[in-house]
Design a protein that fits this description.
- With 626 residues, this protein is α/β, with parallel strands linked by helices.
- It has two domains: 212 residues, Rossmann fold, CATH 3.40.50; 304 residues, Rossmann fold (3-Layer(aba) Sandwich), CATH 3.40.50.
- Bound molecules: NADP nicotinamide-adenine-dinucleotide phosphate.
Length: 626
């Protein structure tokens, strides 16, 4: 099959060509200059627009499809665009093309309809006044040229309202003006854009869907945003993308999307088409391009880019973890759940571990049903039982020969001393022995990862005042919830340092992090505490303190951002054996640097595992750190 793609060097054309080549089509790309022709992908023949419209000679012989991918927008020379495209349509029809797909513009509709409500393909077209007249006239001329040949070829028209890519200077300049405090200069009360890559996908659907012939379709992101929300978002992104360090602006506030300007039902039902990039991702591409331009012109501080890599990738819709496997324990609630969603948005296949099958299913449904997330796998296991850890690891090793990220996040605080069915105090079992054991058991798939595999152990600030007590590891002599929890988290830090020594020289790095004080269910232990010995005033003071503390806590999403960043950001490549306070390298308590004590702890934990599971930790993992 043979296709001709106009504006082949543009973002829409590039996306279309990528897919045509995958389908083994023969492609002729029409471009603006020789330089663009030589930059086309291998296997594509380039042709510069002929000086005389339609003078293509034999270049179009044998073509099956003509894909007109040049968006009608901006401050282009529309007369020239219409003339050359009309000439190409005529030449293609003469050459016997079977189908033509035209990227037109939603500005063909009556301008007042675009402002008022949701526009369907049967909405009246506009005249000579109001709205974006130049764009409308150009798009109407192109559609009319197509209608003239509709009895000879199959024609499909796509009508986007606003196509965004990183080269749209007129949009970038507008975004930049807004970001610097200027006002909005967009038509209408809502922005309803589409990413150029998504429009390219729509062109391919229009080419390949037999029933699309003879139809016009609206195409855009699923949602729109009102101008005032877009303004706020651009201004926030200006700060974020200019390296502002305020953490609270780095996570987008929950701004309600607005109803779409374009009704998309026809594209969804007839073409089965849905844009992949959400409206926020599309706008952030524009904001990023504007800040890059500002930086190139010296208007933005050229300081090192500081937005966490994980959040940046999510803002811009990139998938740096595509093809990677990330095991997250405690992934169904709190920090772990947010981390699982972030990792999945970054393209990783998340293997989520927790006890509740119901919460596991809800997470899997969420990861599987959004276009931005990657479907994951749920594994049910009670990680305070070492036999369950062993079975889980055996299952994971079989299913995932390579694991790229292990986030040992599951943890809990218990008000009363409890003992697991295997006879281990539960805080110790869940917060220290379980992640230790799981990391050992997953050493092979971690080592088999392509490139660096990162293990992140989640500890807590609570370790600061709770030194390890080897004489009473099971807290039989004294039990108080937080000190016992802190003791286990101290131990986790100590074994992390030894693990890093053990893994030195391999592709596996391991670090431990305090995730901050985070508003999650873990704090319910406080609500469950027995307060019957407190008088009314004491109780009131305690509750007031508790509430104040909770108000100052960070969100699970913010905390997860730190963990995920440690698990993937290039700036931490190769770092191993460190303690992080959120995203910053920090010192853990002095007691955790006691190496001889850490070695004793290591042996103690190994001993418990051996006694409990009957298995000695074997293979390359059994070596004791030097
Ligand atoms: N929140 C904070 O302020 C804070 C501060 C410092 C450190 N941390 C640490 O951060 C980590 C996450 O805490 P969080 O606040 O997000 O807790 P959370 O909201 O209570 O969530 C805990 C997660 O772990 C799972 N889990 C609990 N017990 C488990 C078990 N026995 N086996 C398997 N999964 C289990 C839970 O799911 P199921 O119940 O379904 O199993 C849930 O998915 C913990 O290691 C915690 O110690 C938290």
């Amino acid at each position: 099959m043979r296709a001709v793609v106009s504006d082949a060097a543009g973002h829409v054309g590039q996306r279309v060509i990528e897919q045509l080549l995958d389908l083994r089509w023969d492609v002729l790309g029409i471009v603006g200059s020789d330089a663009e022709a030589t930059a086309l992908p291998r296997g594509v023949t380039g042709k510069v627009w002929p000086k005389r419209a339609g003078a293509f000679g034999k270049a179009l012989d044998g073509i099956d499809a003509l894909l007109l991918c040049e968006p009608v927008q901006g401050d282009a020379d529309f007369d020239a665009q219409v003339k050359r495209t009309t000439g190409l349509i005529t030449a293609a029809v003469k050459a016997g093309v079977a189908r033509i797909v035209l990227v037109s513009s939603a500005h063909v509709y009556a301008p007042e309809a675009l402002v008022r409500g949701m526009v369907t393909e049967t909405t009246p077209l506009g005249g000579d006044e109001g709205g974006n007249v130049a764009v409308r006239q150009a798009a109407l001329s192109l559609e009319s040229a197509l209608r003239d040949v509709a009895d000879q070829v199959e024609c499909v028209v796509l009508r986007p309202l606003m196509v965004i890519d990183r080269d749209q200077t007129h949009l970038i300049d507008r975004a930049w003006s807004v970001m610097q405090g200027g006002g909005a200069t967009w038509d209408g009360d809502r922005l309803h854009p589409i990413a150029a890559s998504d429009l390219g996908d729509a062109v391919m659907m229009a080419l390949r869907t037999p029933g699309a012939a003879g139809h016009a379709f609206n195409v855009a992101s699923e949602q729109a945003v009102t101008i005032d929300v877009a303004l706020q978002e651009f201004r926030r992104l200006r700060l974020v993308l200019s390296d502002c360090e305020q953490q609270e602006i780095q996570v987008r506030p929950p701004s309600p999307p607005a109803p779409p300007v374009l009704s998309l039902g026809k594209a969804q039902t007839l073409l089965h088409y849905r844009a992949k990039r959400p409206v926020w991702g599309v706008l952030s591409t524009l904001a990023q391009a504007a800040v890059d331009k500002g930086r190139a012109e010296g208007k933005v501080d050229p300081r090192k880019f500081q937005m966490p890599a994980a959040l940046l990738a999510i803002e811009t819709g990139e998938k740096p973890l595509a093809g990677k496997v990330a095991v997250v324990t405690g992934a169904t609630a709190g920090i772990g759940r947010s981390a699982a969603v972030l990792l999945s948005k970054l393209g990783a296949k998340v293997v989520a571990v927790a006890r509740s099958a119901e919460a596991g299913k809800a997470l899997m449904d969420e990861l599987g049903s959004h276009s931005q997330t990657t479907p994951g796998v749920f594994k049910q296991a009670d990680l305070s039982e070492l036999s369950a850890v062993r079975d889980l690891a055996a299952d994971l090793c079989k299913e995932f020969p390579q694991i790229d990220i292990l986030l040992n996040n599951a943890g809990a605080v218990f008000n009363e001393r409890e003992v697991t069915s295997e006879g281990i105090e539960r805080t110790l079992a869940l917060n220290l022995i379980s992640p230790f054991y799981l990391t050992h058991l997953l050493a092979d798939p971690l080592r088999a990862a392509e490139g660096e595999a990162r293990v992140i152990n989640v500890s807590s600030e609570a370790h600061q005042n709770s030194a390890l007590d080897l004489a009473d590891m099971q807290s039989e002599l004294s039990y108080r919830a937080i000190p016992v929890y802190g003791k286990a988290k101290s131990g986790l830090i100590m074994v992390t340092y030894l693990f890093a020594e053990l893994m030195q020289g391999s592709n596996v790095t391991i670090n431990v992090v305090s995730p901050g004080a985070v508003r999650t269910e873990i704090w319910r232990f406080e609500d469950d505490q027995d307060t019957s010995n407190l008088g009314p005033q004491q109780l009131q003071r305690r509750n007031a303190m508790r509430d104040r503390m909770r108000m100052n806590m960070i969100s699970p999403l913010e905390s997860a951002g730190y963990l995920v960043n440690l698990a993937m950001a290039p700036e931490f490549a190769g770092a191993s054996g460190y303690y992080f306070d959120k995203n910053d390298r920090a010192q853990s308590s002095e007691a955790t640097y006691d190496r001889p004590l850490a070695l004793k702890l290591w042996r103690y934990v190994e001993g418990v595992i051996e006694q409990t599971t009957g298995t000695k930790i074997t293979g390359g993992q059994e070596a004791e750190p030097a």
